Amino acid sequence: MHEELNQFARNEVWTLVPRTSGMNVIVTKWVFKNKVDEHGVIVRKKARLVAKGYNQEEGIDYGEPYALVARLEGVRLLLAYTSMNRFKLHQMDVKSAFLNGYIDEEVYVSQPQGFEDHKYPNHVFKLKEALYGLKQAPRQWYERLSSFLLSHSYERGKTDKTLFIKKACSDIILVQVYVDDIIFGSTNQNMCKQFVAAMQGEFEMSMMGEPNYFLEL
After folding, report:
1. What does the alpha-carbon distance between residue 88 and residue 197 come to, in Å, rounded to a whole number?
2. Residue 17's beta-bridge partner residues?
3. Which of 113, 114, 151, 199 to pair with 38, CA 20 to 30 A apart?
4. Is residue 174 within 8 Å of 157, Cβ to Cβ?
5. What does the pLDDT look like over 160-216, one tens digit per residue?
6. What pLDDT digit, counting tens, does each position of 50-93 carry?
């Protein structure tokens, strides 16, 4: 839980402000999750602070919530293509991905239970970046990531909009995005190294090696 809140501080996710009568304050809660590998063994325990997005009011707290999500058919095609062309895939996890999405609306959330500021226990947080649970969070994260990749000469897939492609002479790199999990591979390992360096320069992320288990595949 402390690690999650430290991540918020590093990303400057919010600002503590006095509560006023006209605010629609969205309640927060803690969610705990165990991540397992392909054998069902717990490999990571996560604590995540999320907003109770069902309290949001459309037109006030959020606008367009629609976000693209990778389809299993597209992931299967990617696996088949990389296998056929005999190049390795790698997997990365973007830490607290939704915190990288900027929000346009004024959104206020309650202080996390058990972590209230002792000087200002009745203050609330004004968000500068998206929080898990907000209706617009997936869309804002995808917009931030796609803008970053497009600015680095990647092209969005014509059919699968969560697939990004970059070509250099006879080489190609493919990047498949599923929320905060990303798998990628290239016919040239230097393109993979350049992609990792670019991502590490923009986001906090961890490399997970070659994927053995992805979206229950």
Report:
1. 18
2. 124
3. 199
4. no
5. 889 999 999 899 999 999 888 899 999 999 999 999 999 999 988 888 888 887 777
6. 888 665 555 544 455 555 677 888 888 989 999 999 999 999 98
- Give the pairing type, strands 124-127 and 108-109: antiparallel
pTM beyond 0.90: no
- Tokens representing 137? 């969070």
Contacts of 45 (CB under 8 A, 6+ apart): 32, 33, 34, 35
| 185: nearest Cα among 86, 94, 95 | 86
β pairing state of 108-109 and 25-26: parallel
DSSP reduced 3-state for 74:
helix
Contact 7, 48 (CB under 8 A): no
Decide: 207 and 187 in contact? Cβ < 8 Å. no
SS3 100: helix
Strands 14-17 and 124-127: antiparallel
54: alpha, beta or left? (left if phi > 0; alpha if psi -120 to 50): alpha
